From TrEMBL:
Pfam families: ARMH3_C. Transmembrane segments: none annotated. The keyword Chaperone does not apply. It is found in: Membrane. It comes from the Eukaryota. This is Armadillo-like helical domain-containing protein 3.
């Protein structure tokens, strides 16, 4: 098997240089190709099911990965049609369902499955995608989830280690300059202070695509998102063993094995908080965007939403943030429902990426995820115990940023579409707040925030009205944005005069918050609002566009995964003497 792997690898090298080179005819007689591949892949099925020898499985996986990654474009690989007709899905899932095998072979098995699921077939139906969508074995799905969680946890642990090292190197002078820069915070300079993420964090595309495929195609996989995995086997994971020594020597670094249980969704949120910090490079931006796509798929699912809103499932989620971030939002770190942790993650992203080169697509995804969560709460009358004021103030901060830098931003992007999504979230709270918010006082605070920051909404309305009446490429979006502001402007125009009258009547120049809230409570009856059904947003109509954009992103990332996997294969690093020794031990046991 090792000899065949090296031979196939060499032939593929020549094929990549000369695509007309028919390397398969060198390996087998053309008329016997189908029969030979059928027998070969049948042997691979047997080897992957081999109950004792670990090295046999490893060699087989290396061989299959060598074939799959032979060409940069999976659809140009002539050998993959045989893997489509002679499936290795079942033995790979058996590896995932075994607690021992998944430790050694789980990562390669998931990576192989992920690449095979992205091969386009003549029948337009990939057999691996079909089988994944029908998979309902609990142990296999939990194994799939466990491998992904291990890989993400490895990145979180590495980032935590580097964060501690960076913190220990800080001097009092660094701290002093950081405090001064915080006092002089200017939003458009954020882009100059993003941290450089380690290479390992940027090379997680394969695992992210695997998670996307499972979430997107298999409804049963949603049950594993909050399934608590024991950390007993974590330290045995090969990629983790490499870091064990450095971790245990650092008393400040908490090993995952110190936590008795964890789950995929908690770890994924933590990973997202790391990867979303730096979106300047294409690779980082793609990984971050795929995280948003995965979160969109999760928040689209009714069952997943019910898990995230379950008050009996509360977890402590440590979201990471760059030390150079200079905004005031500090999330509560106590155990909470996962929906609350997800809202914290979205707020972190919104406040951390207000820059002149605004990542609009990611902001649109971010706001749509928030919108989906609120829509779920509205449909199911769920009152999430959350500090909603943090969300409202963050959304207003983004609106203020869009308005302030409108001239620079509008040259490259349509800021009005983002403004529409943000305003529609406020419209949801205004219209259905009595069904969403935990208490009547929360509804009062919503109005208080709108009134307190009324100049932002006034200026946004002026900006959108001006562009809706002028000849502009964004005229339609600007018109829609001004229409979405009807109820917000009605609240402002209703309460500002009443507050002014109250101040004059009581001879007060600087009212406190409670006094304004009292005015708000006493004047609900005379406020007239409209039911803006068209402004509340609908995601079903955008599902086809969502799938199309996600598909193009996946195709782009798969090509990179193929190249990275090919470079990481062990052709030159494998100790042949060790392989032979393992075989001899296995033979003696037999």
């Amino acid at each position: 098997m090792w000899t065949l792997t090296c031979l196939v690898s060499s032939l593929y090298k020549k094929f990549r240089i000369n695509p007309t080179f028919e390397f398969i005819s060198i390996l087998v007689i053309p008329k016997d190709t189908d029969m030979v591949f059928e027998n070969l892949l049948g042997k691979c099925n047997v080897m992957l099911r081999e109950p004792e020898c670990v090295v046999v499985k490893d060699l087989c996986l290396q061989f299959l990965l060598t074939i799959v990654t032979g060409t940069d474009n999976l659809n140009e690989n002539p050998a993959l049609r045989h893997l489509m007709s002679n499936s290795v899905f079942e033995p790979l899932t058996e590896v995932l369902s075994n607690n021992i095998y998944q430790t050694y072979h789980g990562y390669d098995s998931i990576l192989l499955l992920t690449l095979l699921m992205n091969v386009e077939t003549a029948k337009k139906t990939n057999p691996y995608v079909v089988k994944l969508s029908l998979l309902d074995k609990e142990d296999t799905l939990n194994g799939y989830s466990q491998i992904i969680r291990w890989s993400l946890e490895e990145i979180c642990q590495q980032y935590r280690s580097e964060e501690i090292a960076q913190y220990s190197n800080n001097t009092w002078f660094n701290t002093f300059t950081s405090v001064v820069s915080n006092m002089l915070f200017v939003p458009d300079t954020i882009e100059e202070h993003n941290i450089e993420l380690p290479q390992e964090i940027r090379s997680m595309s394969g695992i992210l695509i695997a998670l996307y495929e499972a979430v997107h195609y298999n409804r049963n996989f949603m049950t594993t998102l909050t399934h608590c995995h024991s950390s007993n086997n974590y330290e045995l994971h090969p990629s983790v063993m490499q870091q064990t020594q450095s971790v245990t020597n650092n008393p400040d670094l908490k090993s995952p094995s110190d936590n008795q249980f964890s789950n995929l969704l908690v770890t994924f949120f933590q990973y997202c908080s790391i990867v979303m910090q730096d979106t300047k490079t294409e690779a980082n931006a793609n990984n971050s965007m795929l995280c948003f796509v995965i979160l969109s798929s999760i928040t689209d699912d009714q069952f997943a939403n019910s898990l995230m809103h379950d008050v009996n499932l509360q977890f402590k989620v440590d979201l990471y943030r760059s030390p150079t971030r200079r905004y005031m939002f500090v999330p509560d770190k106590s155990p909470k429902p996962l929906a609350a942790a997800l809202l914290d993650l979205m707020i972190e992203f919104m406040l951390g990426h207000m820059m002149k080169k605004l990542p609009l697509d990611q902001y649109m995804k971010c706001i749509s995820i928030i919108h989906r969560i609120i829509c779920y709460q509205k449909r199911n009358s769920v009152r999430l115990c959350y500090n909603w004021k943090d969300l409202w103030s963050s959304l207003i901060t983004v609106l203020k940023f869009l308005m302030t830098y409108e001239h620079q931003l509008s040259q490259d992007i349509n800021i009005y579409d983002l403004g529409i999504q943000i305003v529609n979230i406020f419209n949801l709270f205004i219209t259905y707040g009595d069904m969403l918010l935990p208490s009547p006082s929360s509804y009062d605070e919503l109005y208080y925030e709108i009134i307190r920051m009324h100049t932002v909404f006034d200026n946004i309305y002026v900006l959108s009205s001006r562009n809706s009446s002028a000849v502009s490429e964004h005229k339609l979006s600007a018109t829609k944005l001004s229409n979405c502001l009807i109820n917000i402007r009605a609240i402002i125009n209703h309460y500002i005069p009443k507050i002014d009258n109250w101040l004059e009547k009581n001879s007060v120049t600087t009212p406190v918050g409670e006094e304004i809230l009292e005015v708000v409570r006493n004047n609900y009856d005379t406020l007239t609002l409209k039911l803006l059904l068209d402004c509340l947003g609908s995601f079903e109509s955008n599902k086809s566009n969502h799938d199309l954009s996600s598909s193009s992103l996946i195709k782009l990332m798969v090509s990179k995964v193929v190249k990275d996997t090919r470079q990481s294969l062990k052709h030159s690093n494998t100790d042949l003497q060790q392989i032979l020794q393992n075989f001899s031990l296995y033979a003696n046991q037999s």
